[in-house]
Design goal:
single chain, 222 residues, alpha/beta, six-stranded mixed sheet, 6 strands
Length: 222
């Protein structure tokens, strides 16, 4: 009998009061419907043609965002041809540059401080630039030059600066390089002059490529 009364009973659930109301609101799940779900007929389109046009317009606007319009930004006139004049010290770079400027512009320049652009035709310009004997300057010129005039003193031969510049050009993409033999008028012996020309031309083609052009320049006609 004592064991029957000692049996513990669970608490009765509260059916009223603030706690019961909170629990009922928490357990109650009400599904919320939108206006379109409550009354779908009110949101249907009236005209199939208008609905098709609106859908097509919306797709066109979204499709245009994925395509950037291509704008032709090419200039009306082509950029000038960049000609770099490279050579060792006292090889005649400034003399050659003044001569080219005189040929194109019919004017004589006494001092040159930077690149000079001259008109060479109706729709063509030429920019002449004298390159310093600096490795950083040679690297920059090798990237942008269109034509390179490599001056070689015939009395001295191909200098170390020329070899460095040729190796830099091979690393960055070789532009059109033309060799120019200068100070030919200083050699009076025709036999030694002819021998030196042949040796330098062969060495120049070995360093650059077979068939590379090598021109001769003298100061007697400047």
């Amino acid at each position: 009998m004592d064991a029957q009364f000692d049996k513990k009973k669970g608490h009765n659930k509260r059916h009223a009061g603030r706690s019961a109301d909170k629990k009922a609101e928490k357990d109650k799940h009400v599904q919320e419907y939108t206006d379109k779900q409550r009354n779908p007929k009110a949101f249907t389109f009236k005209s199939a043609v208008r609905a098709r046009n609106n859908f097509q317009r919306k797709q066109n606007l979204e499709h245009k965002k994925h395509h950037i319009p291509v704008v032709d930004r090419t200039p009306l006139e082509p950029p000038p041809v960049f000609i770099a004049i490279v050579g060792g010290p006292c090889s005649g770079k400034s003399t050659l540059m003044r001569s080219l400027i005189k040929i194109y512009s019919k004017q004589r320049l006494t001092s040159i401080a930077g690149p000079v652009t001259v008109v060479s035709g109706k729709k063509r310009r030429v920019t002449l630039f004298e390159v310093n004997n600096d490795i950083n300057c040679m690297i920059d010129i090798a990237k942008v030059a269109d034509i390179v005039l490599l001056l070689i003193d015939i009395t001295f031969g191909i200098e170390m600066e020329a070899f460095e510049f040729l190796s830099i050009c091979k690393a960055h993409g070789t532009p059109k390089i033309m060799g120019v033999l200068n100070h030919i008028d200083l050699m009076k012996d025709n036999k030694s002059l002819k021998k030196q020309k042949k040796a330098l031309k062969q060495r120049f083609q070995v360093e650059l490529y077979p068939g590379a052009k090598l021109f001769y320049l003298t100061g007697e006609f400047m």
